[in-house]
Amino acid sequence: MVSCTLVVEKGGWSMSELMMLHPMVQKHPWMRLVPNGITGARIGLSGVVTYMIFVPDVSLVALLVFVLGASSDRVDGWFARKYRVQSAVGAQLDSLADKVLVGSYMVFLWPLFGWEEVLLCTIILVREILVLSFYHWRKPMNGKSLDEFASKRGKQKMVLQVVALALYGAIPVLMPSLIASMTGRYCYELLSFAVLFAATGMTIWSGIDYWFLWRGARR
């Protein structure tokens, strides 16, 4: 009990908050910062992708950075749930990091897109901006925050977006070998467009779902 009291005094947490923490976190309080640190690193990787927009011939590096950043989205969530260090700030930061990473890589890939891809990506970006605009209003509603009402479709659309953009990002890398033939290139681009189309549909669906959940939560 003495050690617990010391942790409370040092960290400024209540005893009830402390008892809810994983034993490892009680022993190492700095672990509470790990999920948000990973999320912050993902935002940093988005900055790297944005910088690469102005650097020629870095398609492979940009793809690897994007995939690494997208993969971290699973790690921070897993860590927060496993060690019971979830927080409202972490949830909002995680959502923001996802949108910044996807948006920056979309801009990087813009020269590869035809008008169809530009249209779909514009729809995705507009939806993400609209959802971000809700953050100003998403105060606690009936004792709960909007994040508690969020649908799993939000993560599903993120996965589809990442897969679609990774497929497009791999085109300059794979073109000299795997998709050098016209037939191979056509099939690959058709697959990439189909996944992007599905991602756009899921993005719209999750946005509508988000709206109705928000409306319902305010009643």
Q: How would you describe this structure to a colleague?
A:
The chain has 219 residues and is mostly helical. The chain has one domain: Four Helix Bundle (Hemerythrin (Met), subunit A). It has ten helices and no strands. It has helices at 2-11, 15-20, 23-27, 34-52, 59-82, 88-109, 115-133, 153-169, 171-174, 182-218. Helix 4 (34-52) packs antiparallel against helix 5 (59-82) and helix 5 (59-82) runs antiparallel to helix 6. Mean pLDDT is 77; it is low at 1-12 and 139-146.
- Total individual domains: 1
Task: Provide the CATH top-level class.
Answer: Mainly Alpha
How many individual helices? 10
Bin the helical content. Answer: over 70%
User: What structural class do helix, strand and pairing data support?
Assistant: mainly alpha
- From the 3D structure, determine the CATH topology: Four Helix Bundle (Hemerythrin (Met), subunit A)
Tell me the distance between the termini.
43 Å
Order of helices and strands: HHHHHHHHHH
What's the alpha carbon Rg, rounded to whole Å? 20 Å
Average of pLDDT: 77
**Proportion of residues in β-strands:** under 5%
The low-confidence parts are 1-12, 139-146
Question: Any idea what the CATH architecture is?
Answer: Up-down Bundle
Main sheet attributes: strand count, strand direction, barrel closure: none
Number of strands: 0
Large-scale geometry: globular
